[in-house]
Prior knowledge:
Helices cover 41% and strands 25% of the residues. The protein is α/β, with parallel strands linked by helices and 313 residues long.
Amino acid sequence: MSDFDDILAFIRVLELESYTKAARRLGISKSMVSRRVARLEGRLGTRLLVRSTRGLAPTEAGRTFAARAACSLAELQEAETEVKKGEREPSGALRIAAPLSFGVMHLGPALAEFAQHYPSISISISFSDRFVDLVEAGFDVAIRIGVLKDSSLIGRKLSPIRALLAASPDYLARHGRPATPRDLMQHRCLSYTGPGSEEQWRFRIDGRWYAMKPPGTFEADNGEALRDAAAAGLGITVLPSFILAPALESGALEPILTDFALPERGLYVLRHGGPPPLRLRLLVEFLAERFGPEPYWDPCWRKLPAETLPHAS
């Protein structure tokens, strides 16, 4: 910041035509002002101020430099004022990356409410299940579901994300209700194939994790499509409860194999390192209160087993 201090000292001396007045305005000693101006002249290799019978006056180089420097200083001061104002009155832009199904079903309505509370904050949301690099893509924050991996990003867990198996009453009436995960090998299963998907379904049986590859002829990279296919009686699916909740509440789907725990993941908000601006701090706190610590879409889980899988990916 020495360059900035030197330029500021020169501008103040020129404006006030006095080292003494400039020192008083800057809150430093007269000798310090003189050293800063001299240091600036030394760096530029030319005199900027000369004394005349009428006092201090700029040289030709001094006038040219002052015209440019004054504009730059004004912009810096305006930027500083804007930033400080943003810390008192939340404003500015937030670019948010979010997964598709969760974003549309739950995050979108939450952000609409947030925007009503803070009308001076502009929000831009991108819904996609593909992985995005926050820095390269220019996002301020990302909402992600899974297990956090080591990175330079700062993450906060908002709530657990639990999954369960479900099928329509019609399908269960026609094909029977499986009693154990192994029984699924005799059923039609509907599998998710989107980013982060796994070929196997995993269950906790007698204290150990059991994995199986479900048989089936229907796959999709969208959870809502799988939910609707299950409701149509095409088979059994395993999906996050935030997707299944509406169909479970309406009776279109029934939970099955609820005595066997499935891997539990988390809902996270990720941001860049460093002190976050006020608008981002407010967003994180709002989402934490909205979605956690226990998600509102999970009343069915209060009596169902769930267990975290530490090394899930």
